[in-house]
Write a structure and sequence with these properties.
Blueprint lengths: L13 E7 L2 E10 L9 E11 L5 E5 L4 E8 L3 E4 L2 E3 L4 E4 L6 E5 L2 E8 L1 H7 L11 E3 L13 H4 L6 H15 L6 H13 L5 H7 L4 H12 L3 H19 L5 H4 L7 H12 L3 H6 L3 H13 L19
Antiparallel strand pairs: 1-2, 2-3, 3-10, 4-9, 5-8, 5-10, 6-7, 6-9, 8-11
């Protein structure tokens, strides 16, 4: 499903509310399609409005995903990926991840922008692999700091959503630079999302490049080795199926590429740092509602399942 890029077709707020431990909270999400000049660069532009009773904070785990920048008004998150942790930062940035991001968050308003590999190539200077599985204060991180120019506007509660969207588009257009590896990036990304190849050699052949070139492109713009990226895609497909199909068992959600449940359990524990049963027993107040709204409005539940959406790109 492709969202129309015209401004008057932006999506309405998607609402979710719940009660946990006698405390209530409500979540609203809204997705915007980036203009066509940014095709292939971003997953989406989105807003999240979280309202909690009093000082109550929700806790959740984000699944492995692409790089993201997020801007918060009111409360800011305490977020952790691996050994890296950030708190009290209105502008947070994460690199591409193969681990969960655990976070705690109270009443807030958030603007989020997800960067696909092509977006990394056009907007960020540095190898994605050097920023994988990390979370930072975006205002002080040397790579993400260039986006800090958006912090005053996106964190201002008195500026309308429409004006913020216009500002984001103008700012990003000024920051965008071309990259000579764009055709290679798009071929690799498209092949990964298609999920038809499980061997690195087969993926390289499908992308019309050598294994060495494939490894270089993945290290520079995707953040991980080709093999790990293929495994992450398989895991993402399974987790999305499980989260969207209420009452489903893991065995029903498992991607067909898994040999057996034991292999899936090992990979789940590696990517989420906990067993599937422990994850299933946890509440997912943000992730569940966000994925449901994203699948309904955007067409895919998680970032890693988004296609690059580059049409009629000239051959290299």
């Amino acid at each position: 499903m492709r969202i129309d890029n015209s401004r008057d077709r932006t999506n309405a707020w998607a609402d979710h509310s719940a009660t946990h431990d006698a405390a209530s909270y409500s979540i609203r999400t809204r997705f915007y399609a980036p203009p066509s000049r940014f095709d292939g660069c971003f997953t989406s532009f989105h807003e999240l409005a979280l309202d909690c009773d009093g000082d109550y904070c929700v806790t959740d785990y984000l699944q492995p995903e692409w790089a993201n920048i997020r801007f918060f008004t009111k409360s800011t998150p305490r977020a952790k990926i691996g050994e890296l942790e950030v708190a009290d930062a209105p502008f947070t940035a994460t690199g591409p991840s193969s681990l969960p991001c655990k976070f705690e968050l109270g009443t807030t308003r958030m603007w989020g922008i997800g960067l696909l590999p092509l977006g990394w190539a056009r907007f960020l200077d540095g190898d994605a692999a050097n920023h994988a599985n990390g979370v930072w204060n975006g205002s002080t991180n040397p790579v993400f700091q260039r986006f800090d120019v958006m912090t005053p506007t996106l964190c201002d509660p008195d500026i309308s959503s429409e004006d913020k969207l216009d500002f984001v588009c103008r700012t990003l257009e000024n920051l965008m630079e071309p990259c000579r590896d764009e055709p290679k990036i798009v071929r690799v990304h498209t092949a990964l999302v298609a999920g038809e190849h499980m061997a690195v050699g087969d993926l390289a052949d499908a992308c019309s490049m050598s294994i060495r070139t494939l490894e270089r492109v993945c290290h520079r713009y995707f953040g991980f080795t080709p093999k790990r990226l293929m495994r992450r895609q398989r895991f993402a497909r399974t987790l999305a199926t499980y989260m969207l199909e209420k009452g489903a068992r893991w065995t029903e959600a498992m991607d067909e590429e898994y040999h057996d449940q034991a292999q899936f359990t090992r990979e789940f524990s590696e990517f989420m740092t906990m067993t599937p049963s422990k994850y299933a027993a946890l509440d997912h107040p943000i992730l569940a509602s966000f994925m449901e709204a994203r699948a309904r409005v955007w067409g895919s539940a998680v970032q890693t399942l988004d296609r690059p959406n580059i049409e009629r790109r000239e051959p290299e």
